[in-house]
Write a structure and sequence with these properties.
By secondary structure, this protein is an all-alpha fold. The chain has two domains: about 70 residues, no CATH class; about 45 residues, no CATH class. About 60% of the residues lie in helices and about 0% in strands. The mean pLDDT is about 90.
Length: about 140
């Protein structure tokens, strides 16, 4: 069974655990179920509270039964929320900001996020960059 099959079972069909084969039961992942159910705004608090007890302490069968008992029977669509793509900045821009602030690359990327385009332009011009280079380096900056 796939994660979608398990979510459908928990939300709508609610078959008894014993009706699944051993191979199907082995595909049940408490972590993934918790993660997927937490994508629903109506369930996020319940899942957050229950996951303290479900991961590592309860068997899959108990977790499945608990969710089937707690979650009302209805067809639901939980859109999976992906992490935001990180913005990639030009290596030369990061290195110039690192020189200016004398900090690590990770901290300087945070600075780039916070600084305005004008602030970054000033830093780049202090290190001898012309307008064409500055424009090229600030292409990814909003």
């Amino acid at each position: 069974m796939t994660i979608f099959d398990w979510i459908n079972q928990i939300n709508y069909e609610k078959r008894k655990w014993d009706s699944f084969t051993e191979d199907e039961q082995k595909t049940f992942s408490t972590f993934i179920i918790n993660r997927w159910l937490s994508m629903d705004e109506d369930l996020i608090q319940v899942v957050n509270y229950f996951q303290k007890y479900s991961v590592g302490q309860l068997q899959s069968q108990e977790v499945y039964k608990w969710y089937c008992d707690i979650i009302p029977r209805q067809k639901r669509f939980n859109k999976y929320i992906k992490a935001k793509k990180s913005v990639k900045y030009d290596k030369e821009l990061i290195e110039t900001v690192c020189k200016y602030y004398e900090n690590s690359k990770k901290e300087c990327i945070d600075y780039i996020e916070l600084l305005s385009k004008d602030g970054l332009k000033n830093i780049l011009e202090m290190y001898g960059m012309d307008k064409k280079q500055t424009k090229k380096l600030l292409r990814g900056k909003k």
